Amino acid sequence: MHQACAVGLVFAGCCSNVIFLELLARRHPGCGNIVTFAQFLFIAVEGFIFEANLGRKRPAIPIRYYAIMVTMFFTVSVVNNYALNLNIAMPLHMIFRSGSLIANMILGIIILKKRYSVSKYTSIALVSMGIFICTFMSAKQVASQSSLSENEGFQAFAWWLLGIAALTFALLMSARMGIFQETLYKQFGKHSKEALFYNHALPLPGFIFLASDIYDHALLFNKSELYQVPVVGVALPIMWFYLLMNVFTQYVCIRGVFILTTECTSLTVTLVVTLRKFVSLIFSILYFQNPFTLWHWLGTMFVFVGTLMYTEVWNSLGVSGSQPQKEDKKD
């Protein structure tokens, strides 16, 4: 029952979150900072009340380790959101972030000296090929859409390249954070809800450096047309409504993932999150009629098939179906 509820929260929360994020980004492409700040503030306040017990509960993992993790987490969040302001379409943004397995494998080999099976390398090759196809086709679209003049076309393409560089940096930084988090959990035990709170609370002072941008977008949000909120009956600027819904759905999504990590195996969590990304991508393409060619679909298929291969879902299902007694004994 808990698992089904968690899966429902993940799909409902994350898919809705993508819609509201794109609604925000389409009206004001540079609004990533105010979106990130609102999400961090909400989760930090909720965690301070219910997890930190109004500051009375001591953290299980020393604060100095959280400070390192938070620096990486804050950087990844800001860079990922800012990439939307650099000619990066939402579907490409989502596909690129689905390549986290590549970054994890590369850094695992370099930092942890890990070695992988042939099937793992094959799956990563598929993911890499899928991302390359989608990126290449998006580059052609940017070039063709910006062919009003040679100057404008080159400028748009340069911004797009900067966006790809930003996404690549965020991908590698996120993988490095995952490795660091893994070593912490091995040393101090799993405290995912505590980590969720500190990852969102400690970076809040860093938003001082983004205060002017957040303030400017708050003024822009105030100028948007009024929207009558259903049920509540309150009228507020529609951009603030989109932001509130984005924050709420993000919280629902994160809570769903947290419940999954405590109720299911890591393999199940990876599978659910991967399928959620795919459904979110379909939502974005169909709802907003984003340009998506057959090449994009091919690249997307490579990414998700490669991800499922990496998690060894088929092998796991085969083992659980043919050897139920052994699985029971392990548990």
UniProtKB/TrEMBL annotation:
Name of one Pfam family that matches: UAA
Has keyword Ribonucleoprotein?
A: no
Molecular functions (GO terms) = UDP-N-acetylglucosamine transmembrane transporter activity; UDP-xylose transmembrane transporter activity
Q: How does it sit in the membrane?
A: Multi-pass membrane protein
- Membrane-traversing stretches: 37-54, 66-84, 90-112, 124-144, 156-175, 196-215, 227-245, 257-288, 294-313
Q: Which protein family is it in? A: Belongs to the nucleotide-sugar transporter family. SLC35B subfamily.
For this entry, the protein name equals Solute carrier family 35 member B4
What is the name of the gene encoding this protein?
SLC35B4
